[in-house]
Write a structure and sequence with these properties.
The complex is a heterodimer of chains A (about 350) and B (about 300). Chain A has about 350 residues and is an all-alpha fold. Chain A is built from twelve helices and no strands. Chain A starts with about 25 loop residues before the first helix and ends with a helix. By secondary structure, chain B is α+β, with helices and mostly antiparallel strands. Chain B has a single domain, classed as 2-Layer Sandwich (Alpha-Beta Plaits), CATH 3.30.70.20. Helices cover about 25% and strands about 15% of the residues of chain B. Chain B is built from eight helices and ten strands. The chains are: A mainly alpha (about 350), B alpha+beta (about 300). At the A-B interface, α1, α3, α4, α6 and α7 of A face α3, α4 and α8 of B.
Chain lengths: ~350, ~300
């Protein structure tokens, strides 16, 4: 494993320095729903403005945007530890908090998308009004697609914080690929493979962007010595095989084969469908793996201490003196970290456990 | 610091009520709104008695958490948590036992606490406004507003604030907000028998801490330095200054402190701008793909 690790010294009995948020699969599922819905609104708007016969993409995109909000919001609220006070999120606006910014993006996007979908359902003049509302909805959709990356990198989780830019591009591109894949599947079902082909081209471009961002993100993590949880362990496997191989490589191969087909020949319907399904599955694995690996990275004191090593000029060296000159800390603790878990004496059968053989 | 003249007004052991501006008698500082208050924790004076932990638990009515032995030297408290707002750490420096420091028998002890940062990442992360800055320049959680989103938890660079699963709200040290309002110094500082924990106005404490470092250097403890005072380790990455700062004698990592912590809010703009740029690029590309002349419909 390539790691430029300037700090390999002592930790405090292997105890984490920072604390882990109570975020589980629901937050990752919300990130997925938010991205899919947000980008679907963008594609729907583009389809409406293109003037081509893409009426179904317009309609499906508008409904997907609302579906993303309707599915995503309860996931978020249920992850609060006092869910009955969810409305306190809109009590103030805090521009330094990605959570606060995101609350307003979600509220705006949800409201505008609902109006758009209602106009779509009503038809006629209402549909024209929906088109006017859809432009700001699409802008909010762009926010929904990628703000969730800043939600993670705007913390002190080393794995997330090491790469704020690349993670935002990765999540945004993944959201666009997910939305294009979902809309493409619907077009294939309706038998309009020529529309699917355009959506698959969008997905291909988004996947290429996602791949490039993932390479940059990996390098940035390795440079800071915090790549661990995405290079070993179960979330590393999920990320490599689920998010990158299944979610990016497989669909890229499928769509590329279709795009490279000579103009006269009919494009393969099954390759398009397979590619789209792989994108949708991989997108979910990506969010789960990045969230859980980040949680794991917060629990690794050495990763955080490496992440917070000073750069030159961080403080007044004349006043403080160089930390390098101080007595080197012992390399190893006397007992390994796993042995030092505090034992819970308050529960369980004490006697049976304590009885000597 | 001699006895304050006002102390002679209270010769009895049992007083009928709270002494007005009691902090004037105990630390020589009158607590007034608008001034900045904090802690200076001098680890060279800590004897590991944990009186601060007990005083904190008692005053704030905090429940006990881990009732076992941790195997981490004398530290069975293990960490700061929703129910533990002072935590005395014990570092046994076994490897350096041949060259002993002139204090503490090579046994480092430090009473850890919320740092009440000048730019507090927990406060900056809080979307509900439950975390706020008080008139004493301290950072406090209002449990009647907190909805338990937990975003302050990974935002704290020092792992201080935590959600309590008992009530689903965030909890941390309040620097005894209620005591400050009543003119009393915080419980931990008042109970500290060696004055390892000093309470006072931050600027005043920084000045005194600087003198203490000089004094220690003169006495041969050349490793002594401040953590969290302006332009020192801990006060980095946009945090600027920690209102509760420390005097340390080994690398910060040894005390489970990050040497150069950062302010997460500084990472927002780069992330959001890069994300929006990527979305704009992909949108333009999708628009081009949608409007490109295509094959005839089959």
């Amino acid at each position: 494993m390539k790691m430029s690790a300037p700090y390999e010294g002592q930790t405090y009995y292997g105890q984490p320095v920072v604390k882990t948020p109570p975020y589980d699969w629901r937050i990752a599922a919300y990130i997925y729903c938010a991205g899919l819905g947000g980008s679907a609104q963008i594609l729907s708007t583009l389809a409406r403005l293109s003037g081509r016969e893409m009426g179904d993409v317009v309609r499906n995109g508008r409904y997907l945007a609302v579906a993303g909000t309707i599915l995503g919001t309860p996931l978020l609220v249920s992850d609060l530890k006092t869910p009955s006070r969810f409305y306190n999120m809109l009590r103030i606006f805090r521009p330094t908090s990605a959570m606060s910014i995101g609350s307003y993006i979600l509220t705006g996007f949800g409201g505008l998308s609902t109006l758009t979908a209602m106009g779509q359902a009503a038809g006629g003049t209402a549909e024209k009004a929906a088109t006017a509302v859809q432009l700001p909805a699409a802008l909010a959709g762009a926010g929904m697609s990628m703000y969730t990356a800043s939600l993670l990198s705007g913390t002190n989780g080393p794995l997330w914080a090491a790469t704020p830019r690349a993670l935002a591009v990765q999540f945004g591109a993944a959201a666009m690929a997910n939305a294009a894949a979902a809309l493409s599947l619907a077009e294939q079902k309706a038998g309009r493979s020529h529309v699917s082909a355009r959506l698959d081209a969008v997905a291909t471009l988004a996947l290429a962007t996602e791949l490039a961002a993932s390479v940059v993100a990996k390098e940035e993590r390795q440079a800071r010595g915090v790549a661990g949880p995405l290079e070993e362990g179960k979330w590393a496997k999920a990320y490599k095989y689920g998010a990158l191989a299944l979610g990016v490589a497989v669909p890229l191969a499928c769509h590329a084969a279709n795009l490279a087909a000579p103009p006269g020949r009919k494009k393969s319907r099954s390759l398009s469908i397979l590619g789209s399904l792989a994108v949708l599955a991989g997108g979910m694995v990506l969010r789960q793996a990045v969230l859980q690996a980040g949680n794991e990275s917060l629990k690794r004191p050495a990763d955080y201490l490496r992440f917070t090593q000073p750069k030159a000029g961080h403080w007044d060296e004349r006043k403080v003196g160089s930390l390098e000159g101080r007595a080197a800390p012992p390399r190893k603790a006397a007992i390994s970290a796993s042995e030092m878990k505090p034992r819970d004496y308050t529960t369980g059968p004490r006697r049976a456990k304590d009885a000597a053989p | 610091m001699g006895v304050h003249p006002r102390a002679q007004d209270y010769p009895e052991s049992f007083l009928p009520g709270v002494i007005p501006d009691e902090s004037e008698l105990t630390v020589g500082t009158k607590i007034e709104p608008g001034k900045r208050y904090g802690f200076f924790t001098d680890t060279t004076l800590c004897i590991g008695c944990k009186a601060c932990e007990v005083a904190c638990k008692e005053w704030n009515s905090l429940p006990a958490d881990n009732m076992g032995l941790s195997g981490m030297s004398y530290d069975n408290t293990v960490k700061l948590s929703a129910d533990t707002w002072r935590h005395v750490m014990f570092v046994e420096k076994v490897d350096g036992a041949t060259g002993m420091q002139p204090f503490q028998s090579n046994w480092l002890m430090m009473s850890d606490v919320c740092k009440h940062c000048k730019n507090a990442p927990c406060l900056e992360a809080c979307p509900t406004g439950a975390l706020f800055r008080t008139e004493f320049d301290t950072v406090v959680v209002q449990q009647d507003i907190c909805n338990g989103c937990g975003y302050c938890v990974p935002s704290c660079p020092f792992g201080v604030v935590e959600l309590s699963m008992a009530d689903g709200k965030a909890h941390k040290c309040t620097l005894c907000y209620d005591r400050l309002k009543g003119g009393l110094e915080p419980a931990c500082a008042k109970s500290c028998p060696t004055d390892s924990i000093l309470f006072g106005e931050v600027d005043d404490l920084v000045e005194r801490a600087g003198k203490r470092v000089e004094e220690l250097h003169e006495r041969g403890v050349t490793d002594a330095y401040l953590y969290g005072a302006p332009n020192t380790p801990g006060a980095t990455g946009g945090l600027e200054q920690l209102n509760a700062f420390f005097l340390l004698t080994d690398r910060p990592e040894v005390y489970n402190l990050p040497p150069a912590p950062t302010r997460p809010a500084n990472r927002l703009a780069p992330g959001l701008l890069a994300g929006m740029a990527a979305m704009a690029g992909l949108t333009l590309a999708a628009a081009a793909i949608f409007s490109a002349p295509g094959e005839k419909r089959r």
